[in-house]
Design a protein that fits this description.
The protein contains eight helices and ten strands. The protein has 282 residues and is of the alpha/beta class.
Length: 282
Amino acid sequence: MENFAGLTSPYSDYEFAKAVVVPVPYDATSTWVKGSEKGPEALLDASVALEWYDIETETEGYKNGIHTAEPVLIDETPEALCEAVYDRIVKLVDDKKFPFTIGGNHTVSIGAIRAMAEKYDNLTILQLDAHSDLRPFYEGSELNHACVMYQAQRLCPITQVGIRSMCVEELPYANKDRIFFAHKIMFENDWQERALNTLSENVYITIDLDVFDPSVLPSTGTPEPGGMQYYQVLHFLRSVIERYNVVGVDIVELCPNPKERASDFVAARLAYQLMTYKFLKK
């Protein structure tokens, strides 16, 4: 796999880097379109085409250092996968690095969320997603990609943004004061401030790329119409990063299509933008 953004020493060195990208090419629990195990490599390949200068912030975020770690290559069971991701993220936090996980399907987030909940008090998990992912079990597993936020909610408060698909079995586990549905986001001007007010001192962000409308990013495993726009997402997440201590991020569910490469680049651009926001001098 490529180094993120094609960076070389010293900016790609582990010792120098503030951020560490952790590829997790895992797809075993996917239930519709397969192929998200190829997402990390596609994102990294596309990232080589990024311009390092950011117009919005007038900075060069790569100068904070971005190390690309060896991928987590575990696919025997979802339990083993989650444990391996947990171990990797705990090590990064102990080394005072900013962990940025790229999947793979949403199951890869469970291990990262467990690590963050152990390492940080007063933590909220902020999910951007088309799906609520609140099933206790799905297809015989409590670690299916459809269960990730049920697992997260057992550890700490969650806030969900962009949701537009859920099943009736998830309703008992849904806190509607902390879910910002896509159809309401379109017509409520105060949704961002209300969502921001649900967060706590420390925030971990998990982004399923199907939060975007398919017109923005079609190459995901479970695309849903009526999603969010690129700058809508960026504006909200910059506000989160400016107001709270964001302790880590994951981006999951890129399902690359060789005939549609724009999605790969959108995912890479989003990752770089968030790392740039994180290390802006306040």
